[in-house]
Structures are given as structure tokens and as C-alpha cells.
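INFO batch 0412 | record 1 of 1 | parsing
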Amino acid sequence: MIIKNPEFKISAVSPKQYPNDGLPQIVLVGKSNVGKSSFINTMVNRKKLARTSSEPGKTRQINFYSMDNKFYFVDLPGYGYSKMSKEEQVRVGRFIEEYLSKCQNIALIIFLIDIRHSPTENDRLMYNYVINANKPCIIIANKADKIAVTKVDAQVKALQDELNPLKDFTFLPFSAERRIYSEKVWEEIEKFI
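INFO prediction complete | emitting C-alpha cells
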């Protein structure tokens, strides 16, 4: 899929701020610094649509990016960032939960994990939350450029065996650096928009 005119629409912290145009929303969840913003930029072939930061935990709002007015990529704040105060973690957690439970336009959840590491406790909590949300989901094993190309498939399989032994979710590798996995990810996303 080629997106010609991706644009940042709004940052939201409550339902009254969500776009209400009925377009499908593709939601990105994952821990801080797993590469959600880089994922968006790579998928739409832009360098700076979604702001990336060298400081994890920078996103504190829900960011909506319109894709040619056909659907949204929705970037949720990352979890597991220790420098965020407990109070702020609770506040951010609350509006993420509110979004995931109240938004009627979620078409797909894309759950990003780091291909190099076993899922963290926070990853497992989010995974369980996604299962309980009962929404379609694919798992993206990001940062595939950080391991040898010959090990990517085996590592994706190992992560699926560990996190999703039922194998009822699709697991795909991804790399913002290499840009070689985007087509397969678009094929999955297109099933839901």
C-alpha cells in the first residue's frame, strides 16, 4: 500500500478528543522505545511524520495520524518507562485503558515487541489485556536489523512459542532500518481496513 498524504491529526487524552469520522483505527501498543513512531514513519515512507525521540517515554498522549483520510494509525504512549512518575504512569494508563475499551473504531491492534528479548512482564500484561479486549491483533517483532538475517525467522517463532503458544495471532518481523518487511505488514493491515 502506498500512502500519499499521511498527516498528524490530533493528540488526545479523552474520548471527546478522538476523531469521530468513523474511519478504522489501527492501534500501536508496546513498551517505550520499542519503535512505534519509527514503525509509522517506515510504513508511510516519511522521516518525521511521527516524532521519534532518543528519550523513551516521551509520548504522553494518544496521537492520531490520518492515512489519506482512509484510516488512522493511532500511537499509544509506551509502557514500562521508569522515569515517568507513578502518578503520571497511572494517569497515562487510565486514558490508554479508556481508549481501548471505549473507542468503537479500533479495527486492529498492532502489538510491537523487541525481537531480541523475551517478552517482559509488562509485555505479558499488555498481551493479556489485548486478548481480553477481544480485538483483532498482530504482533510485530521489531528491530529485526539488530540480529542476523538468518536468525530472524527462528527468533520470531521462538517469541510466538513463548507468548502465543496457541498460534492464533500473526507474528511478523519488522525493521525500520532495513525496510524489507513492510510489504508483508501492509498485507496484514489491509485485511482490516
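INFO post-check: Residues 37 and 50 are 5 Å apart (CA to CA).
INFO record closed
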